[in-house]
Amino acid sequence: MSRATAASTDVLIANLYEAVVEPTVLLDFLQELAVRTESRAVHLAVFDDRSETVLLDAAGGVVGSTPEELASIRRDYDATYASIDYRRIHLTGLPVGTWFQCHEVFPPQRLKRERFFKEFVQKWDYRYFAGIRMGQGGGLTTYLGLNRRAEQGPHDSEDMRFLRQLTIHLTRASKLFYKTRSFRTHFAPGLESLQYLPSGVLLLDQWQRVLFTNAAAESLFRSNQGFNLNDGVLELASAPLRKKFNDEVTKVFNTGVPSAVLLKSPEGPRGSGLPCYLLRLPQTSDSYQLRGDPAVLVLVPQASPSAPEAVALLRTLYALSRREADLATAVANGATPQDYANKAGLEISTVRSQLKSVFQKTGTHRQTELVRLLSVLPRVHIG
User: Fold this and answer.
1) Do 198 and 263 sit in the same domain of this protein?
2) Per the domain annotation, does 1 fall within a domain?
């Protein structure tokens, strides 16, 4: 495989900076870097230092490392081996911008005794590794690692010289990433249609970082409703309510089942409180783009909601046509496909085709699942 030219190096660096604001370009950067260094795979990961969890993970590889295989390797790593990865542990102690190669740090005698080496490295043939701690800021740390097969040998001096030349760009891109907080910009402009809904809409990632708020939700932070933002993370002022809310969000993320929670102040009157409806969003949609991580929508209805809100939410979140959104809301209110066909003056075959499309776009398979999905909108009157 021929090495890339100086012109392609310029493209590589350009893709790195563009990836700060456009996540889809990140894969182009990683793929090109894998080719340039003849690496089996190149991984970039952003870690949340507080929760020790992965916020963003992306990988690119050369021939022999398909996207499906890379995804399998990442699942295996996350499920079992991340906590015993001696390479990652070593990386966390290095200054930002410092490269290391595993064969220069860890003697073969030690590696043969390591469970990580025997069960993960040999299984996936990730024998040689070069890594760098790209940057740190805002409670996040970014790492970049390049892996090669045993038969390839370690990255040679030409590779390492090239990688060290890239270092200044890697660290600068990391600083831009943290400065712009682009990890929050998971969504395309389609969600702007929710900006002026009367009900509050917040979108959270697994760590309850706020990805999006509309104007009504932002007013919650200003009106002493118990919602606070701490370094971009949603928090509730009351410890009991915080636990209750966190548990519900976690449950929705883990199960995908919509939920509702009444955030009641201990001092408030019986039956009072702020209703919140929680819904896990699909990771892909024609209306917006997620960076591979799920998100949850938190809906805080206004006191007197209006019918168009439900339609706007459905059309934006699931890319439903107006007719599909009307059908979905009718089904949520107990109508059968035949009822809707009669009311709309449509053939039942047309309605069934539309309902099939609704199922596909919302990730549901039957009417009961669709009704349960839409149960997050009970206070936003539909129909």
Assistant:
1) yes
2) no
- What pLDDT is stored for residue 128 in this prediction? 94
Q: 153 vs 38, 39, 127, 157, 262, CA distance in Å?
A: 11, 10, 8, 12, 59
pLDDT score of 284:
57
CATH number at residue 361: 1.10.10.10
Q: Model confidence over 81-92: pLDDT tens digits?
A: 888 999 988 998
Dump pLDDT digits (tens) for 97-148.
Answer: 999 999 999 998 888 889 999 999 999 999 999 999 999 886 788 999 999 9
Lowest mean pLDDT among 190-204, 290-304, 351-365: 290-304
C-beta of residue 142 within 8 angstroms of C-beta of residue 45? yes
Residue 268 clears pLDDT 70, i.e. is over it: no
- 41-48 and 140-148 beta bridge pairing: antiparallel
| Cβ count near 154 (within 10 Å) | 15
Q: How many CA atoms lie within 13 A of 354 on its CB side?
A: 23
Give the domain range for residue 365.
307-383
Domain boundary pick from 183, 214, 248? 183
What secondary structure does DSSP assign to 2-39, as a single string? PPPPHHHHHHHHHHHHHTTT-THHHHHHHHHHHHHTT-
- φ, ψ of residue 127 in degrees (nearest 5): -65, -45
Q: How many domains does the chain have?
A: 3
Let me know if residue 243 belongs to a domain. yes
